[in-house]
Design goal:
The chain has 2 domains: 145 residues, 3-Layer(aba) Sandwich (Rossmann fold); 72 residues, Putative phosphatase, domain 2 (DNA polymerase, domain 1). The protein is 55% helix and 12% strand. The protein has 12 helices and 8 strands. Strand 4, helix 8 and strand 5 form a beta-alpha-beta unit. Helix 3 crosses helix 4. The radius of gyration is 21 Å and the shape is globular.
Amino acid sequence: MPIARRQFLVSTAAALLAGAARARAAQNTRPLRAVAFDGLAIFDARRVLAVADSAFPGRGAELVNAWRTRQFDYQWLRVSGARYEDFERVTADSLEFAARLLGVELSADLRAALLDVYRGLDAWPDAEPALRALKGAGLKLALLSNMTAGMLHGGIERAGLRGLFDRVLSTDEVGSFKPAPRSYALGPSALRVPVETILFVASAGWDAAGAKWFGYPTYWVNRTAAPVEELDATPDGIGRDLDELVAFVRER
């Protein structure tokens, strides 16, 4: 093949690839029309540690960590094994396992007190001002969480966030848990806007990756300064709190 022709073909291919890359970049930065939050990006579950620590001084964190780990294990195992139960059942079952694992005894009252925390979580202090700022910017707001609808509405009531969310979406509606694609599909279906125009705000790195796989632009509220997951799905933005999220949205 003559050198001039080869150079022409190479330069043409490079131009086509660059054009495709620009098109993808433009698509990924389409104007936002909505923001969908994982439940724990808005709600603070730390109160459960105070309840556990008061019952088991010095061992509360150990119990809560074992409980939370099994909570996620059971969600994913049940989806993988096609044996779905909702988040409330999974939360109760994982608490029982964690207590047996650590050899601690749960009274009926303590079990109820621990589980009740999830039925009415506190909001992070930065949640309400951030939600009001985003809503004031004309964006639709939604919760998209593995928690049950009852848990999500309980948190909204406790935190005084009524009226700020356009939709409250529990993956229980589709009998699954994130990161299953049908769970993330609830967002564009309910909000009636393309997924590329919904910013998904995650509280965990794996959730940011799952949402990115599905097609959302993503933001990770990384309050614990955890490393980015090795899942080939880097969030579009990462910040320490919801104030930084608002700044990200304004600059986007």
